[in-house]
Amino acid sequence: MTDSQTFAAKITTLYRNVIEKLETHWAPVADLAARIWIGLMFFRSGLQKLDDWESTLFLFEYEYALPILPFELAAYLGTAFELAMPILLFIGLAARLAAVPLLGMAMTIQFVLGANNAAYNDFNHYAWMVFLLVIIVRGPGKLSADHLIRQKTMEKTA
């Protein structure tokens, strides 16, 4: 083996070791951080809505008006989803399912409200959508109740 081949083999081995460590130890932490970050965005919004319910109803009637839902129902559903789904994301229980209504809300904010009011046309909504899509597609990761349940279920069937 030549010196350049030995060097290339060492670099390749080093690269594989780094990737293995990242995937084994840091990917689960990154998955958890993503779930917590996006969950906090929605949970805080839900708490804000509860804090001043009259203002929430006013906003849903006049500012967030959706053509397909009565404003009161939209306010209750939006607030309920913003408070309940993040808790599921935090613990990683039914995380893929929990991310779906939040993705729908983010898309509504960006594409429905944003089409009518430039204040809602915000690049951050795209980041929310990406985080939620990653959770839906990849799942919540190893640091989650979903992973523990899957592990226990696999043990029983094996």
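That was protein one. Protein two is written in the same sequence-then-structure order:
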Amino acid sequence: MKNRIENEIHVYDTKNVGSAELSRIIDTEYLRYLEKAFDIAISTPIFFFNRIKVQEEGQGHGRKLMEELTEILDQHEIAVFCVLNPYGKRRMKDLIRFYEKNDFIILTKSKGYECMIRYPKVKEKATVKAPDSTSAPEIYVG
């Protein structure tokens, strides 16, 4: 897998079986609109999920791409906003299930489209408190 992060994120399989593309949302007015419209707080960088595309559906390529993508998003503490758009053989309920398996949360249930968001999973970092002369070291996770 290869990826690039700047104002866009591209994840693609080196065997050319699929790709995922995201664009950073930098318009502050649009960010405030999202916060107000969906009653959410955005405190990390947020990207708009443009698409995930695979050559052959049902072979696990989308799952593998999404696993790679969510790992990158978590490492860089990036949130993702998307509007689900079923086309072809895809059904809305299948898209929702796919995104929910990858920790996306439904923001709206409207006729014809769904909006979802995924917040990054921030891994807890262990820190060691320097010992004083009377106690053993303590480890804090937080």
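The chain has one domain: 2-141. Keep this in mind for the problem set.
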